[in-house]
Amino acid sequence: MDVLDVGARLLAVLLAFLLLPLLVGQSEHKVMAHMQGRVGPMHAGGFHGWAQLVADGVKFAQKEDTVPAGADRRVFQLAPAVALIPYLIVLIAIPIGPDGMVGQVLDAGIFFVLAVLGVGVLGSLMGGWASANKYSLLGGLRTAAQLMAYELPLLLSAASVAMAAGTLSLTGILGEFEWWWVPWQLMGGLVFFTAGLAELQRPPFDAPIAAEEIVFGAYTEYSGLRFALFLLAEYAGIVVVCALTAVLFLGGWHGPLADQLGWLWMLLKTAGLCFLVIWARVAWPRLRADQIQKFAWTVLVPLALAQIALTGVVKVVIS
Predict the structure, then answer these.
(1) CA proximity to 199, closest of 155, 264, 254
(2) Transmembrane segments in this chain: where (predicted)?
(3) Phi then psi for 2, rounded to 5 degrees?
């Protein structure tokens, strides 16, 4: 790669990072407004409430950026960036289309993206600990406990796809992909997608920020743009988890006329999964913290292990 090529790829990744989470946030306003019959988000600015996202941005920018008197100021201010930046790094390794449409091809792409995603929880832990607030600390600890529980089924379900493809590279997995994998790996895909939602603390797995129990979890003391960065990290995480699910279990850019429209198929699959994330927020009630832990260890982990066993059997049979 020459300097211009590297620069173009990094610019494309940065633009996707800045644009796609905002589109998901705007879509969430509209989808939830339709599902819940809320008229406000549908009228801001005129046509279909196009200015709702702008209004939210102005609101966050105008709010005072406060730091609690007893807080560890440096850690408190750094936490939102630690929560957000891992998702930018992960986007570099996710292939969007064929013929090199990826920021950087990595031989151990699965390990890289899952390891970097795990760093994001440090932002919540740092914010909860540095806030000098017992409710924030409790929310941060809940976040850490939830990550530990759901990291295992996430890794196991991704390992099943790596076994099937015989490679840890995301581009290599797409190169080996066959359509008959979709029903065969469906159980692993459901486990991966569900565990990803739990790691993002999205409903129904949002006990770490249960407002009726611990105010707003690790983010209780945050306001203004720093709080907006945590929200942006959540929406960026939705994009990343949905894109990874599409790559690992739905064939990524594979589809009719993949050579010309592969990038479009990838975007459509990612958008469809993002819609499911928003739908789950509206349709499902919140689980308690103990129910979340029980679901991980008694349901998702056994299903992920069963998927690995099935993959091993199928690999032996076809070889």
Answers:
(1) 155
(2) 6-25, 78-96, 108-131, 152-174, 180-198, 227-251, 263-283, 295-318
(3) -90, 175
